[in-house]
Amino acid sequence: MADENKYVLDGKKRLKEKLKAKVIQDSNYREELKKLQADKKALKVLVKADDLATCKNFIDLIDELRIHDIGAMAPVEMMPEETELVKAKTK
């Protein structure tokens, strides 16, 4: 996932260096990181789950996305074709 989100991770690294050098304050760091995550170049993720997914699965996934600095994520319903594809692949 890091390769796909390289834009944000590289920007975060630069911001951390500025924070460490006291060029910016912590509040500015958080603001700028949010801007990076919202940028059109940043990775966006649609989260789809089938009927077998548990709440814990969903929470674990969201936690992982946050760890990798994914700022834009949205839970969406699976389309019937996707549900059939998952069923066919997991038989």
Biggest sheet details: 2 strands, parallel
Helix content: 55-70%
Strand order of the largest sheet: 1-2
The end-to-end span amounts to 27 Å
Structural class: mainly alpha
Cα gyration radius (Å): 17 Å
Mean pLDDT figure: 91
State the domain count. Answer: 1
Give the total of beta strands.
Answer: 2
Residue ranges: pLDDT <50 for 5 or more in a row? none
How do the helices and strands follow one another from N- to C-terminus?
HHEHEH
Q: Can you count the helices?
A: 4
- Proportion of β residues? 5-15%
Oligomer: single chain
Task: Report what the structure shows.
The structure is a single chain. This protein is mainly alpha-helical and 91 residues long. The protein has one domain (6-89). The protein contains four helices and two strands, in the order H-H-E-H-E-H. It has helices at 6-20, 26-38, 55-67, 80-89, and strands at 44-47, 72-75. It has a two-stranded parallel ribbon. Strand 1, helix 3 (55-67) and strand 2 (72-75) form a beta-alpha-beta unit. Helix 1 (6-20) runs antiparallel to helix 2. The longest helix is centred in the first third of the chain and has 15 residues, at 6-20. The two termini are 27 Å apart. The mean pLDDT is 91.
